[in-house]
Write a structure and sequence with these properties.
Shape: globular
CATH architecture of one domain: 3-Layer(aba) Sandwich
CATH topology of one domain: Rossmann fold
Strand content: 15-25%
CATH superfamily of one domain: NAD(P)-binding Rossmann-like Domain
Number of helices: 11
Bound molecules: nicotinamide-adenine-dinucleotide
Largest sheet: 7 strands, parallel
Number of strands: 14
Mean pLDDT: 94
CATH class of one domain: Alpha Beta
Length: 326
């Protein structure tokens, strides 16, 4: 474990107690970055407790929409990773006004603070679901957006806000694939994590939308992508949009009929043609690879095996509890 180093910028991670943040914050600290987390702790989050006395770690409990709390979190900060949001289609659909405020207004407040304090590096967690119902062709960063949920619409609006050249800052937008894998803040509502939990607890997995495309990304690899953007020369990332994932990790959902039993022995998979979720997108990841030399090191199989082992271990007493879903 390295100690915070004075040549590493101090990084504010909003939403840092969440699924991604709990992995990213530890990765940043272990690389010597001083880290501030601002989080309102929506999900019984005790996932950062072990960091309380770690040198270089500071926690601010608060909301990005609350000026005083946001200002306190920004003290001494030189770079920002903005993760805080109401995350996922279901959570946004439950309370549209809160989703628009938390995601769009919240991002505007973070941008304002960066401008006021001359924080030049702002990385934003967007999603490949901005491509929505995307068909079979590969989707690039400049492909048309076709969001099919309020969640994705809020992310489109955040991107527009951040990439508007007149605002004087040049943030970096990372469009993340669908995540999977172990995090100290576990989420079992994410597709692969859900399949691994179902397969482990009941031996049966049901999948909707056989022909749909979805790119998958391990949570460890997403943390690596944020670090790669923080450490890249500014001119390579400023004002850029990157799809984050790997061309190898685009799957039609029906592929999991074979993959799941290979990862979870004895699991039976049923594929339903009926489509609840209209999202389908097959994404190209050449840009981030070309610009930053970034590629993933973990696969969907790795995530399925890992989450299967986690659930089978019994370490999480009740994986079906609402606290593991958004
Ligand atoms: N998990 C995925 O598959 C995925 C995919 C693409 C993009 N993303 C994006 O990555 C980011 C993090 O996602 P996650 O999976 O870690 O979600 P998460 O729900 O686990 O974490 C979000 C965290 O933000 C906090 N938060 C929410 N609103 C806040 C506010 N107004 N002020 C302060 N804190 C607030 C919550 O308490 C929570 O700890 C989000 O912006 C999400 O849209 C996630």
């Amino acid at each position: 474990m390295s100690r915070p180093s004075s040549d590493r910028p101090s990084v504010l991670v909003t939403g840092g107690a969440g699924y991604i943040g709990s992995v990213l914050v530890r990765m940043l600290l272990s690389r010597g970055y001083p880290v501030v987390v601002l989080d309102r702790l929506m999900y019984e989050n005790y996932h950062l407790l072990d960091l309380f006395e770690r040198p270089g770690f500071r926690f601010v409990r608060g909301d990005v929409l609350e000026g005083a709390e946001l200002a306190r979190a920004f003290e001494g900060v030189e770079a920002v990773v903005h993760l805080a949001a109401i995350v996922g289609d279901a959570a946004c659909a439950r309370d549209a006004a809160a989703a628009i405020a938390g995601n769009v207004e919240g991002t505007a407040r973070v941008l304002e603070q960066c401008l006021a304090r001359h924080v030049e590096r702002l990385l934003f967690a967007s999603t490949c679901s901005v491509y929505g119902a995307g068909g079979d062709g590969e989707l690039f960063e400049d492909s048309a957006q076709n969001p099919v949920s309020l969640y994705a619409e809020t992310k489109v609006r955040c991107e527009e806000l951040l990439l508007d050249k007149s605002n004087g800052l040049a943030p970096t937008v990372l469009r993340l694939s669908t995540l999977h894998g172990f995090s100290p803040r576990m989420r079992f509502d994410l597709a692969l994590n859900f399949f691994a939990m179902q397969g482990t607890l009941s031996g049966r997995v049901t999948i909707d939308g056989a022909r749909h495309w979805r790119p998958m990304l391990h949570v460890y690899d997403v943390a690596r992508a944020f670090v790669a953007c923080l450490e890249a020369p500014r001119e390579k990332v400023a004002g850029q949009v990157f799809n984050v994932g790997s061309n190898r990790e685009n799957y039609r959902m029906e592929a999991f009929r074979e993959i799941i039993p290979q990862c979870i022995p004895g699991a039976e998979v049923q594929i339903h043609a009926n489509v609840v979720d209209r999202r389908s997108y097959r994404v190209n990841f050449d840009k981030i690879r070309g610009a930053l030399g970034y590629d993933t090191v973990r696969s969907a199989r790795d995530g399925l095996v890992e989450v299967h082992r986690l659930v089978a271990s019994g370490l999480i007493a009740d994986p079906q509890s609402a606290k593991y879903r958004n």
